[in-house]
């Protein structure tokens, strides 16, 4: 059976962004199919007794009915648990800070879901991400570009930083040229039930999840001490070598570097830069996590967001964790870029220093709370060209 070459499968999530995505594609003449991904249905780790995936799937179905497009639900919970949830537990247990939303896009939306869409005869998948897709022809070869969304307040290109050329070739981002208010206006004008629906909170596809409760499903509670390190500690006065290697060195702490000020229920539940959940009072300014030692089960904290232990000028990414959205732009010499290490963080000037075993990223200005396991993403102007897992 030969399918229309303009068939697009839209990941209808039950939110306003994917709803408008489906409408816009329909207006552009595509044959649109709506697919809802059921990726998690373990209510034991939700904050309330609400069933977010059931409500979302119902809203997605109502949108599909309103638009007159085919709709179905696919259960990807087994793949989600294996590729995302198990990864999260393993990373936190190692004292690292994973980003499940980035992995969800790479492993679920643009891998498992994309394959299902292609099996349905689609030429493209489409999502409600606030980013844009472009392309450039170089020596007869087409290179697809991942561009930031025009809405600076909603740009979601960071979450797609692990996509590759094959995935981008089959993907459309219809709302990337719009702002959130414009998207809501379209939804309201079309009478879509999701027009005023609030944006989802919590983990990708899981819903309203309390992260500590979620982690405690598999990671045991283990009481340990919280050690406060003074901002005048001698280690912060030592000038580091002005090399990528020297600037990327982490501070290594021991119990003798500070004063015990409290206890916690497991170092693996905390991340660098975290403020909430410490339950330690008596300081003028809030305490922030400087480092975690999961082997010794110790958390090191510092007072105030300007504490020198929070800041580093560089980071390291091992070669196997370096990913290029644009492989044709892999540098052999230092490259100046704009970079961020977390979603919504303002882009900062940085220089990439490639080596045979990995990549150093050196920022013009020190950055706060660089944590192992996070994804660093780098841009040339408004194009995201690569990313990597911080070591």
Describe this structure in words.
There is one protein chain. Strand 2, helix 2 (52-67) and strand 3 form a beta-alpha-beta unit. The protein has 3 domains: 7-128 and 174-215, 3-Layer(aba) Sandwich (Rossmann fold), CATH 3.40.50; 224-306, no CATH class; 312-389, Translation factors (Elongation Factor Tu (Ef-tu), domain 3). With 391 residues, the protein is α/β, with parallel strands linked by helices. The radius of gyration is 22 Å and the shape is globular. The protein contains 8 helices and 18 strands. Mean pLDDT is 91; it is low at 45-49.
How would you summarize this macromolecular structure in one to three sentences?
The chain is α/β, with parallel strands linked by helices and 391 residues long. 23% of the residues lie in helices and 29% in strands.
Give a topology summary.
Blueprint: E1 7-11, H1 16-27, E2 31-38, H2 52-67, E3 71-75, H3 77-93, H4 100-119, E4 124-126, E5 131-138, E6 141-148, H5 165-169, E7 171-172, H6 180-189, H7 211-215, E8 224-228, H8 244-247, E9 259-264, E10 287-293, E11 298-303, E12 311-318, E13 322-324, E14 335-340, E15 348-355, E16 358-368, E17 375-380, E18 383-389
Parallel strand pairs: 1-2, 1-4, 2-3, 4-7, 8-11
Antiparallel strand pairs: 5-6, 6-18, 8-9, 10-11, 12-16, 13-18, 14-15, 14-17, 15-16, 17-18
Using brief descriptors, characterize the structure shown.
five-stranded parallel β-sheet, 18 strands, globular, alpha/beta, 391 residues, Elongation Factor Tu (Ef-tu), domain 3, Rossmann fold
């Amino acid at each position: 059976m030969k399918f229309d070459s303009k068939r697009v499968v839209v990941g209808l999530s039950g939110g306003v962004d994917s709803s408008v995505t489906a409408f816009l594609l329909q207006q552009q003449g595509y044959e649109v199919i709506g697919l809802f991904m059921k990726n998690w249905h373990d209510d034991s780790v939700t904050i309330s007794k609400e069933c977010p995936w059931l409500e979302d799937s119902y809203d997605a179905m109502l949108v599909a009915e309103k638009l007159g497009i085919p709709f179905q639900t696919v259960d990807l919970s087994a793949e989600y648990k294996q590729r995302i949830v198990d990864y999260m537990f393993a990373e936190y247990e190692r004292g690292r800070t994973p980003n499940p939303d980035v992995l969800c896009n790479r492993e679920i939306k643009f891998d498992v879901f994309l394959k299902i869409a292609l099996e349905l005869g689609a030429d493209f998948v489409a999502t409600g991400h606030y980013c844009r897709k472009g392309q450039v022809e170089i020596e007869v070869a087409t290179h697809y570009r991942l561009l930031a969304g025009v809405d600076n307040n909603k740009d979601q290109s960071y979450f797609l930083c692990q996509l590759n050329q094959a995935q981008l070739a089959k993907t459309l981002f219809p709302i990337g040229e719009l702002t959130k208010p414009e998207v809501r206006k379209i939804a309201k004008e079309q009478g879509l039930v999701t027009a005023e629906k609030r944006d989802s909170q919590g983990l990708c596809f899981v819903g309203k999840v309390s992260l500590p409760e979620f982690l405690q499903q598999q990671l045991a509670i283990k009481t340990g001490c919280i050690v406060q390190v003074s901002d005048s500690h001698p280690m912060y006065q030592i000038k580091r070598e002005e090399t990528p290697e020297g600037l990327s060195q982490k501070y290594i702490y021991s119990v003798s570097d500070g004063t015990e000020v409290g206890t916690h229920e497991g170092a693996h539940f905390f991340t660098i830069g975290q403020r909430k959940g410490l339950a330690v009072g008596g300081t003028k300014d809030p305490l922030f996590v400087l480092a975690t030692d999961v082997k010794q089960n110790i958390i090191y904290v510092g007072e105030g967001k300007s504490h020198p232990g929070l800041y580093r000028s560089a980071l390291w990414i091992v070669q196997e964790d370096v990913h290029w959205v644009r492989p044709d732009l892999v540098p052999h010499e230092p490259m100046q870029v704009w970079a961020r290490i977390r979603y919504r963080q303002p882009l900062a000037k940085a220089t990439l220093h490639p080596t045979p075993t990995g990549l150093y990223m050196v920022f013009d200005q020190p950055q706060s709370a660089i944590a192992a396991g996070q994804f660093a993403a780098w841009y040339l102007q408004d194009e995201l060209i690569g990313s990597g897992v911080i070591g």
